[in-house]
Inverse folding.
């Protein structure tokens, strides 16, 4: 082992300088080319990024301008309705006379307002239009939004009523509110303006109009926006974001980072770079509406920015391809000078790792690398000889253990059989002796026949049946044995000779005999796992030997599998189970062997786990 480690350290020291030479040449060349690539890439990126950002801002500005014009057009129609109500003589007369509901003046004024409302192109965005005096009101409202509220009494109670009424111009600073007269709740923008008498400027009443958010949302549904771009509506100090067909008020503030308005092409457009409350940088294009302190804004899509950077990536890819070409040229030169010998040495070491220890003369060149190759060949031959010696030692060990097991089993068979014959001859006067003698002869024949370690499960089951025939006579027919084999192919699968017999004997003497009554032993062989589900490509078999005896404790079950004390009075029974477990693991691997499940006073099941390998085949 020490000599092997010294050879590995020598190989490592010898091959290390060549790796350093390759790395140095590649590092210097690639570093120079990479530096040039970085300079060109950063310069081109800066220029292209500026151009791309400017282009996206102008594109967003154009689209936002069209959206703003649509909203302004609808809002102008709302203003027309407001001006009509403020200037119409019939409405002024209604305000001055304050007639009772149902009067001629009330009906004619309502019809005139309704006519103007129906002719207004934006009437769909005004779900409620009302003219209110001190005592009465006229209301244009759809049936679904109607209410029994007395607007003349309820509107003056609104918190924003006096502020909107006394303002000299339109005031939208209160933002969107929930409709106070609609029980299901909806967002509206209220307009309250005074209505004066016909021949003087004294206020006699006022108008109350609810503007639906559909005025803003309807054109937005036809407006294509990228997934990571947002539309914002600003009403005074209130900011809203448009999401899924509705406006949600934003609670978080933002930080202004930079003013980019110089990139805009029109005067009423403002461009800013902000940092939102979630620490994201956004470029926002803002367009003013024909409403005091009201704006529509759109954030530039990062996905569009990325998609339009494809040209820059193509330029960078071209530069990288050029560097890659130079690198390939360097690799070809290095391959001819150094890499081919090193690669052959590495390939040889990989073959050794895969189990090929044959000598390879092609790596024994007439230079320093050839010395390394000769050292690798010598090392592989030494390892091969050592492995063969180890395998031979293991084989001898297994053969010895098997012969020792036979030497343990044969006297035990003879003793029990002769003892059984003695009792049968004494009690029954020779009845049944023929059958027991036949079973004994078959057992002795199985013991002495050949030296093969593996036999088909069919033969092992036959051996168990012969053994059980003898034991059933010994116990006067109080024992019964049932054998179940799930599939026919299991009979032809290999098992180590004398695997089942010690377990059956253990079930009789340790499980059923202490119970003092009749007992049953069941052998069940089945396929535990299919070949396609197994890591080694073989079906996994399981053979359960179950008795209905006294059972054992979990500690005792574990001790049976590991106990190796030869001084125990139960030497054959416990050591036999332990030996069977070890033999199975020696032959098939550590994942196989025996497991024990038991419940004291109820049962004991010893399960044998083996691969489903058919007799005579190793695949």
């Amino acid at each position: 082992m020490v000599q092997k480690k010294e050879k590995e350290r020598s190989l490592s020291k010898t091959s290390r300088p060549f790796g350093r030479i390759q790395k140095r040449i590649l590092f210097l060349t690639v570093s120079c080319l990479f530096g040039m690539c970085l300079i060109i890439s950063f310069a081109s990126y800066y220029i292209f990024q500026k151009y791309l950002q400017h282009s996206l801002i102008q594109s967003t500005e154009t689209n936002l301008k069209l959206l703003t014009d649509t909203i302004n057009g609808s809002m102008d129609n709302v203003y027309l309705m407001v001006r009509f109500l403020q200037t119409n003589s019939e409405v002024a007369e209604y305000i001055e006379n304050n007639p009772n509901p149902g009067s001629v003046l009330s009906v004619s004024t309502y019809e005139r307002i309704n006519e103007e409302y129906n002719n207004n192109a934006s009437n769909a965005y005004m779900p409620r239009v009302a003219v209110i005096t001190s005592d009465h009101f006229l209301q244009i409202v759809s049936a679904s939004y109607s209410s029994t509220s007395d607007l003349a009494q309820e509107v003056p109670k609104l918190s924003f009523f006096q502020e909107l009424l006394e303002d000299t111009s339109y005031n939208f600073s209160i933002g969107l509110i929930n409709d106070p007269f609609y029980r299901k709740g909806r967002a509206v923008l209220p307009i309250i303006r005074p209505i004066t008498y016909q021949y003087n400027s004294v206020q006699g009443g006022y108008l109350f109009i609810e503007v639906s958010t559909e005025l803003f949302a309807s054109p937005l549904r036809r407006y294509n926006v990228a997934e990571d771009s947002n539309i914002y509506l600003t009403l005074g100090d209130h900011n809203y974001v448009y999401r899924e067909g509705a406006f949600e008020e934003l609670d978080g503030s933002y930080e202004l980072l930079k003013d980019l308005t110089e990139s805009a092409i029109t005067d009423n457009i403002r461009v800013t770079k902000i940092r939102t409350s979630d620490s994201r940088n956004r470029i926002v294009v803002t367009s003013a509406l024909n409403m005091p302190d009201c704006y529509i804004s759109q954030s530039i899509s990062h996905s569009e920015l990325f998609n339009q950077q494809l040209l820059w990536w193509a330029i960078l890819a071209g530069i990288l391809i050029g560097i890659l070409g130079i690198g390939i040229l360097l690799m070809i030169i290095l391959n001819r000078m150094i890499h081919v010998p090193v690669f052959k040495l590495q390939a040889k070491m990989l073959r050794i790792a895969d189990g090929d220890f044959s000598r390879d003369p092609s790596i024994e060149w007439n230079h320093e690398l050839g010395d390394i190759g000769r050292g690798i060949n010598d090392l592989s031959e030494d390892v091969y000889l050592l492995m063969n010696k180890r395998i031979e030692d293991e084989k001898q060990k297994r053969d010895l253990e098997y012969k020792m097991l036979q030497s343990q089993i044969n006297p035990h068979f003879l003793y029990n059989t002769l003892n059984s014959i003695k009792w049968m001859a004494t009690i029954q006067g020779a009845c049944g002796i023929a059958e027991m003698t036949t079973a004994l002869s078959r057992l002795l024949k199985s013991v002495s026949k050949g030296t093969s370690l593996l036999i088909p499960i069919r033969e092992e089951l036959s051996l168990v049946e012969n053994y059980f025939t003898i034991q059933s006579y010994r116990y006067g027919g109080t024992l019964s044995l049932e054998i179940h084999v799930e599939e026919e192919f299991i009979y032809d699968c290999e098992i180590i000779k004398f695997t089942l017999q010690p377990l059956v004997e253990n079930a009789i003497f340790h499980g059923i005999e202490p119970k003092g009554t009749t007992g049953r032993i069941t052998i069940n062989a089945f396929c535990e796992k299919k070949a396609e589900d197994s890591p080694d490509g073989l079906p996994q078999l399981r053979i359960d030997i179950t008795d209905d005896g006294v059972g054992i404790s979990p500690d005792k079950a574990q001790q049976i599998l590991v106990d190796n004390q030869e001084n125990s009075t139960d030497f054959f029974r416990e050591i036999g189970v332990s030996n069977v477990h070890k033999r199975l693991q020696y032959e098939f691997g550590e994942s196989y062997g025996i497991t024990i499940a038991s419940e004291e006073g109820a049962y004991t099941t010893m399960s044998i786990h083996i691969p489903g390998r058919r007799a005579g085949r190793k695949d």
